[in-house]
Amino acid sequence: MRPLLGVPLLVILLTVSFGHCNPRTNHSSGYELATKLIFDRATARMRNVWGLQRRIFMQLTDKGKSPLGGQVVNVKQEVDAETYRLLYELAANLSVVPVANLDDPLLRRRVQRMAKLQLQGLRPKDYEQAKDLLRQTHNFVSGPLVCLQEDCSAHGPLTMFPQIVNKNMRSKLYEELFSNWVAWRKAINEKETAKNTFIEYVRLLRIAATYNGHVTPSRTWYLNYDTENFQAELEAVLWEIMPLYRELHAYLRHEVQAAYPKADTKSDGAISAPIMDQILSQAWYPHQFFRTPHQGKQHQLPSVHRRLEEVLVTPVKINRKAAEFFESLGLNIMSDNFYDRFSRRMKDDEGGADCKSQVYYFPPDVALRYCPKLDYKKMMQIHGTMAELQYNLYKVQLPFGLDSEPCPGFGAALAETVVLASGTPRHLHHLHILLNDSLTEEQSLNRLFRMGVHTLIAVPQYFINDKFLVDVMDGRIGAKDYNCAYWDLQDKFAGVQPPSQRYNKDFDMDFKFYRGMNPETSNTKKFLAEILGFQFYRSFCLTSGQYKPGDPDFPLHNCDFYDSKEAGKKMRDMMQLGATRHWRDVMEIATGERKLTGRGILEYFAPLFTWLKERNKQLDIEPGWDADELCRKD
Ligand SMILES: *[C@@H]1O[C@H](CO)[C@@H](O)[C@H](O)[C@H]1NC(C)=O
Ligand SMILES: *[C@@H]1O[C@H](CO)[C@@H](O)[C@H](O)[C@H]1NC(C)=O
Ligand SMILES: *[C@@H]1O[C@H](CO)[C@@H](O)[C@H](O)[C@H]1NC(C)=O
Fold first, then answer.
1. Which ligand sits nearest to residue 28's alpha carbon?
2. Ligand 1 contacts CB of residue 101 (under 6 A)
3. How far is the CA of 436 from the centre of ligand 3 (A)?
4. Is 90's C-beta closer than 6 angstroms to any atom of ligand 2?
5. Which residues make Cβ contacts (< 8 Å) with residue 258, sequence separation at least 6?
6. Rounded Cα gap, residues 544 and 559, in angstroms
7. Cα angle vertex 552, ends 301, 377, to 5°?
């Protein structure tokens, strides 16, 4: 159990406060005073951390001076180390507070939130090791580790992301996709490195769970979802959308035969993993090899790139437009002070492959460093970033400990709604980027198809990666069966199979699995953000009258709730609550529901679903799959 740092302080404080009490001692007020004092001290220390974060932001964006790379890294390490020490001590001090005796519900909630931790609950040595393991897994993905036959002597080894992913994206040869798929797995799991890293990491997660008193370790992995058997709820959503997934899967399998004849996709078979990776990574690729439903120039999506450059001209203008979306909803207005002092452009070489804009949080201020790229995808993404910024503006008003989203992925789900709305033809028309506020039926279907590939193929993968980790953690999958158990999940939930005979000595998880080992970027969070995002979108669209079920002029997939004060109120009400309430209470404000459901996704993609069913019938394609027995347990 955790060392009981808190006992002396609490005892002293209680003695002191009882001295001031009436003859009839009031226990709860005594405990409350003591607890508040713990929080006051912690908040004072947190202010130092925020101060450091402010310094990082200022240093990175200092105009004129050369970048202080080394110094920034040092300060970042200091932030991490001090945050860890603070949260660790605070949790220990709070773990002896008798929560039931606190009358103030907000204080109770604050204690409950901060008394239990994930990796940060580990003792210093274990915590360091956990971080080290996460650095290693990060290196599996982004380190230059892979030699692709002819390439290595000339250019040196490649990274999985972004180098091999980008290489694959342009490759029309199945042999190449296949050999790259094998080469990376071989490179990271030589001497079972990947597998052993994973095993060690799981060991530490289990230790963290024992400190929380969780008999089932996944309760700590799913900490702030605060739900008995949360995985069952995720799985139920997956089955809900499975009929749609199966139709899409069947259609894609048919298309694969045209794009990659050598991929050996039998008419009733599961899809080979390298091909499925390719389908997903090409969802955004302009010259993708997989055909969209309607061929022909007139059915192509109108190119928005040139108009976007003409209309929005600079990244600053895009930022202002995105900020205006939220202002139209009645959320915070970004002040000139914000643009002058707290909104800075990243240097051109700084964004990296992702070029993700970054949001900073150092109460009372929030800040933004934005990616200077100018394209359709970035335009949508900056709307998501602005959502995060808005959320932070509400969080700064809440006490430390409750100034966060109610569960991981909740903020990303809210962001997703605005990303969806900002990419609709209706909104692009509003921005004067498209001439028309709707597409032709064929174009519209092509658009839904690409969105569908992007979303529907990814969701089961988030689930599988998450379930694998959790099932290992809880002991439902034993160390001897890792690899074949992973392929069983791929078969059951995604219709994906290995490209060749694999064994339990292999370790075939994809690179997104490794990313998802970090709680900050977990697959749980991604899954939830996607599902809840569509649920929120549906409810904002209904509220604003921009989605009228049954009315072909107002389908969900072309809903832009821009300017809707009603939708804005719901968004604001949720953001303002921060973590003061259970996430189910907060989601209820918008959706009237307390559970995750696939309803948003199903209604959004309804026209695609209808089309796929008809088309598959015409082509005599049977949805569903039989996987080959391609993982041998011995
Ligand atoms: C004890 O004090 C708290 C806070 O001051 C107050 O809300 C509560 O009603 C008091 N309880 C009793 C039994 O006097
Ligand atoms: C926890 O309690 C110890 C002992 O009373 C105290 O020194 C420390 O500052 C407290 N830390 C936090 C973060 O509450
Ligand atoms: C806009 O789209 C609708 C539906 O496809 C079409 O009837 C109309 O002519 C289009 N308007 C313009 C200006 O292109």
1. 1
2. no
3. 6
4. yes
5. 291
6. 9
7. 30
Q: Is the pTM of this model over 0.85?
A: yes
pLDDT digits (tens, 9 = 90+) for 181-198: 999 999 999 999 999 999
**Cα-based distances in Å from 367 to 345, 348, 389, 610:** 11, 19, 8, 44
User: Which residues lie across from 158 on neighbouring strands?
Assistant: 146
Q: Is the CB of 474 under 6 A from ligand 2?
A: no
State whether the beta carbon of 25 lies less than 6 angstroms from ligand 1.
no
Q: Which of 295, 626, 605 is nearest to 457 (CA)?
A: 605
- Domain positions in the chain are 7-115, 305-437+522-552+560-596
pLDDT tens digits along 90-138: 999 999 999 999 999 999 999 999 999 999 999 999 999 999 999 999 9
H/E stretch holding 271: strand 271-272
Q: Considering only CA atoms, which of 603, 598, 502, 500 is closest in space to residue 551?
A: 603
Q: Is 438 in the pocket of ligand 3 (CB under 6 A)?
A: yes
- The CA-atom distances, in angstroms, between 584 and each of 67, 254, 343, 360, 534 are 44, 41, 33, 27, 16
Q: What's the confidence (pLDDT) of residue 20? A: 44
Lowest-confidence segment of 288-297, 320-329, 485-494 by average pLDDT: 288-297
Looking only at the bridges linking them, the beta strands covering 358-362 and 365-370 are antiparallel
**Ligand at shortest distance from the CA of 88:** 2
Per residue in 344-376, pLDDT (tens digit) is 998 877 777 778 899 999 999 999 999 988 888
Contact 371, 365 (CB under 8 A): no
Q: Is 41 in the pocket of ligand 2 (CB under 6 A)?
A: yes
Ligand at minimal distance from the CA of 89 is 2
Q: Is 241 exposed, middle or buried (0-12, 13-18, 19+ CB in 10 A)?
A: buried
Distance, in Å, from the CA atom of 60 to the CA atom of 62, rounded to the nearest integer, reads 6
Alpha-carbon distance of 458 to 449, in angstroms, equals 14
Write the residue with the smallest CA distance to atom 7 of ligand 1.
Answer: 103
Dump pLDDT digits (tens) for 32-70.
999 999 999 999 999 999 999 999 999 888 765 555 566
